[in-house]
Specification:
The chain is of the alpha+beta class. Helices cover 27% and strands 34% of the residues. Helix 1 (2-20) packs across helix 2 (41-51).
Length: 113
């Protein structure tokens, strides 16, 4: 399961940060999830709950912010938000499309005490 390995990576960073910041418990973890990252937020949440068991982040709330998929056309220079994969420029029909945002998965903030 894709989400499980992502949750493991995220939690490893959370625990490492908590150790470094000398937090006794993590209360909230905010993550950014690209809309086109192929990760299902609900599955990631479920995996997160499994992975944090018995760690400092056991009771942490997981907040997920979805980053929209933003594409940029290399030919006409237009950039636009797309609902889904559609690698044809909406303005000039070019297939020379770059992804600007929407693929990322990262931790935005960690709160604890
Ligand atoms: Zn274009």
């Amino acid at each position: 399961m894709h989400e499980l390995s992502i949750a493991e990576n995220l939690v490893a960073i959370v625990i490492e940060t908590a150790e470094k910041e000398k937090l006794s418990s993590v209360t909230k973890v905010s993550i950014c999830l690209g809309q086109a990252s192929q990760v299902v937020p609900e599955l990631l949440e479920t995996a997160f709950r499994v992975v944090v068991q018995g760690t400092k982040a056991n009771d942490a709330r997981l907040e997920t912010e979805i980053i929209p998929l933003k594409l940029k056309c290399s030919d006409c220079g237009a950039d636009y938000i797309a609902d889904e994969y559609n690698f044809i420029c909406e303005f000039c029909g070019s297939v020379n499309i770059e992804i600007v945002t929407g693929m990322e998965i990262f931790i935005k903030s960690i709160e604890g005490e």
